[in-house]
Amino acid sequence: MSKFSIHNKVIFLTGSTGHIVGEFVNEFIKDGAICISTDSREEKLHDQIKSIESENLHTYKLDVTNPDEWKMVVAEVMKKFGRIDGLVNGAGMNNPSKFFDIDPENFKKIFDVNLFGMLHGCQEIGKIMVNQKQGSIINISSTAAEPPLSNAFAYSASKAGVTNLTKNLAREFGKTGVRVNSLRPGFFPTEWNRKNFLTQDRIDSILNHTPMGRFGSPDELTSAVQWLLCESSSFVTGSEIIVDGGFSCQTI
Predict the structure, then answer these.
(1) Nearest to residue 94, comparing CAs of 157, 181, 186?
(2) Which domains does the chain have, with CATH numbers?
(3) Is 198 helix (H, G, I), strand (E, B) or coil?
(4) Of these four, 98, 186, 204, 225, which has the most CB atoms within 10 Å of its CB?
């Protein structure tokens, strides 16, 4: 079997019906992976089942901010498959606001989903992987992590935490056979982004700062994640894989 293969790997994903992670599920299923698709939106999971129609797709309702739900879902997956080979922490939320208009409760909610949700997953599934002596964890960060994105104070701060915690876990798990990396996407707009975040001025600013001069498509992230999940990246840990059309290298 090719070192680039994820065939028959059990991959646990959060935020799995979203714009980006939903594409991962579609492509990984095509490549023969067993996908554990989790999301807090049960109706979206039902839609995913109808659209993919594969015996390798297994869906579970999961609120990533709830440690008890993590324990329950992970226990069910382990009972069914006996192992988890990959974890993609992709659940996330955002809320644009001016600094003096920030609602502290909303700020906390964004951290609960984007950072603490990831923490719960790395704890629950990380233990299993350490016992297995193998596994790959991929945490979805953002180009907003550094430097921070304007009008995205909580989101930017939470994603900076994702990047930092990823590196800490890579160091912690380094000798166990478990690898931990982050994916740093550039701009891959969802419908929500376009309605709530992307004014024409903001679009122009982003594209003028992106050497490739366009937004990304979710399928352009899939290969990077698949590489981190498979054996061909066996010496890659603590890394931040940037897929942003050159946004992070643009200056004047």
Answers:
(1) 157
(2) 10-244 (3.40.50.720)
(3) coil
(4) 225
Report the C-alpha gap between 106 and 112 in whole angstroms.
Answer: 10
Which of 28, 70, 111, 155 is labelled catalytic? 155
Residue 114, φ and ψ in degrees, nearest 5:
-75, -35
The whole-angstrom separation of Cα 2 and Cα 122 is 27
Whether 58 and 35 have beta carbons less than 8 Å apart is answered as: yes
- Sequential pLDDT tens for the chain (252 residues): 678 899 999 999 999 999 899 999 999 999 999 999 999 999 999 999 999 999 999 999 999 999 999 999 999 999 999 999 999 999 999 887 788 888 899 999 999 999 999 999 999 999 999 999 999 999 999 999 988 888 789 999 999 999 999 999 999 999 999 999 999 999 988 777 777 778 888 889 989 999 999 999 989 999 999 999 999 999 999 999 999 999 999 887
Structure tokens at 51: 């659209």
Q: What are phi and psi of 28, to 5 degrees?
A: -65, -40
DSSP state of 83: -
Q: pTM for this one? A: 0.94
Catalytic: 60? no
